Amino acid sequence: MRNSLKQMMRTPVRTVLFLGLMVFAALLMTLGASIWMKGTQTMAQYEDRFMTIGTVRQIPDSFEQQLIWNAETKDYDVRKRGQYSDYYTPEDLLFPGAEYLAEPEQRAFYISYQPDYLTTYVSMNPNAIGWAAFIAEFSPMEDAMLDESVPIQITKVIGGDPQLEGIVDYLCDHRNPNPGMIYKDKTYVAMLGHQATYIHGKVYEEKMQSKSEVYIGLEMVPYSLESEIFLPDGSQPEDAYRDGPKIFEVTDGFYETEAGRRILNLAQTGQIYKYCQPVTGTNKTSLLMPFYNGQCFLTEGRDISEEEYADGSKVCLAPKTFMENNGLSLGDAVKVQLLYTDRRLNAGQRFTLDGGIGFYSGLVSPDGSSLEVFETSEYTVVGIYDVTFSGTDSIFDPGADELIVPLESIEARHGMNLVAYGPMTDATASFQIPNGGIDNFLKGWAEHGTDKLAFTFYDKGYSKLKEGIDNMKVISFVLFAAGVVLTALLLFFFSHLFITKQAQRTAIERSLGMRKEACRLAMLSGFALLVLLGSIAGAAAGYRISDRISAASAGETYYETTYTAGLTNTVNNVEVEEAAVSGMPALFCTLSIVAAGVGIAWVKMNKSLKREPMRLLAERAEE
């Protein structure tokens, strides 16, 4: 080896150049291999933590203009309302080639009437006066036409908050272009409530004269007595009270008439909203966006299992606030009495987290009879979840006191006592597909589907992560390939300079009696040492650089903390921590380079040793 090194030192520039280039080649190979392995391990490590959910929204066929009378402006307000020739169903999404991990579902939520429980509304509004639709008898303070705000006194609450009895408020038949007269010496009955209309007319002018600031106050309006119940197919039957009278004079025997009986039946629901709890049926908890994005999270117990979902087991997830308000614990049973079904909105749009309730009117059957509880069950609480407030109103917000149950556990789940019906929306329709399957799904849908349905996909950054890692792997392949090519060129070229070109020296040594084995060792040892030193140094440098590139570039550029570009953004992603840099690529590259260098040198060396020394010396003499 000493002689070999001495021989190399006679050409120091060549030797240093070879060593430097070997370091660089080994660096490229190691860097490429390390980045490739790190990306592959990172994806494998986090694959199961990602989940791709799609939501569905039906696009209206057209928009109808509705003319709604405004008593204050004495003109019609124009409102646009989406029109649908037909409603698509989850079955329409089962197109050929569609791959689902959880098939599409359109969720309804059910309203459970349970007066034995303390609801969020009551706990947060213990002394609130219930101004939601209530039925009461009232007397006008003066003869007046109801085309402006008229003072009335509520004389008797038939269905609603008893605190309203005796209150003086203002009434206007605000949406009626042909309102009637009411008279001071008569008693009337109607379903009343506040809407987004304000006091106007003579009474408003009088109040403004006595105030230095603008007076703003809501007026009451009469509600229709029509039934708002839908048939299971989404249609509404004929109703004699649709577009009919809203205010009735109370005379002897009035409550024995058809209108009177309907009013009494409607009155039974006057306080029911205080004791109602939403129940949502689903086939998978993660299809509910609040659970998917982390707004809802389990604090005790477990999730509903796949088997329980499939079997329709009587188990549920219950909110922490509801459990605490009612002194319930994990494993307790919650009684559910289903009274109404809403197939248009999700629970959070009716039962808001701040305790508000947007309840329904017209809660009687089309013939005016009362609606009865259609299913009673007891559900065992297997998981308790808590909710974080998003700070803004979102269509995905969960409902206050909302129970999550297996859809199959609700026997009468196909449209009993439907209080609302509508198309699939992002808040009510969703499905799960394999990670990375968005493009395949959209291609299949473009071939077999319709442009009347729009999709939004959420993947918690999977597409962005995979795209970034795939880009890194392409770069790593280029680096590795460049390193391999450079290594091969260097080994072939410098083995020629250090071995083949030294054939005459070897011939002299052999002529002086040196054995072939000693010649091999002399030629090979120095070259192999340089290859070893260069590969070790380059591999070490590549290992360190790959660690830095991975932490800075992959962690910041490719692992963005938003959802994939083009999809809906959210702040709740899977936090990805890159796999640790392994020393295996460096070791593999070092051993591969040394083995290749020794192998190439061995072949060239044997080729030189096969030639006769005297012929080699003769060739040199001729030169």
Topology record:
Layout: H1 2-9, H2 12-46, E1 52-58, E2 62-70, E3 75-83, E4 102-106, E5 109-113, H3 120-124, E6 134-140, E7 144-145, E8 150-159, E9 168-171, E10 181-182, E11 188-198, H4 202-209, E12 218-223, E13 248-249, H5 258-267, E14 276-282, H6 289-292, E15 296-301, H7 306-311, E16 315-319, H8 320-325, E17 333-343, E18 375-387, E19 403-406, E20 418-421, E21 429-433, H9 438-448, E22 453-458, H10 462-498, H11 503-511, H12 516-558, H13 584-609, H14 613-622
Parallel strand pairs: 14-19, 16-18, 17-20
Antiparallel strand pairs: 1-21, 1-22, 2-3, 4-21, 5-14, 5-17, 6-8, 6-11, 7-10, 8-9, 11-12, 11-13, 15-18, 17-18
Describe the structure.
With 623 residues, this protein is α+β, with helices and mostly antiparallel strands. It has 14 helices and 22 strands. The chain has helices at 2-9, 12-46, 120-124, 202-209, 258-267, 289-292, 306-311, 320-325, 438-448, 462-498, 503-511, 516-558, 584-609, 613-622, and strands spanning 52-58, 62-70, 75-83, 102-106, 109-113, 134-140, 144-145, 150-159, 168-171, 181-182, 188-198, 218-223, 248-249, 276-282, 296-301, 315-319, 333-343, 375-387, 403-406, 418-421, 429-433, 453-458. Strands 5, 14, 15, 16, 17, 18, 19 and 20 form an 8-stranded mixed β-sheet that branches. Strands 6, 8, 9, 11, 12 and 13 form a 6-stranded antiparallel β-sheet that branches. A hairpin with a 4-residue loop joins strand 2 and strand 3. 38% of the residues are buried.
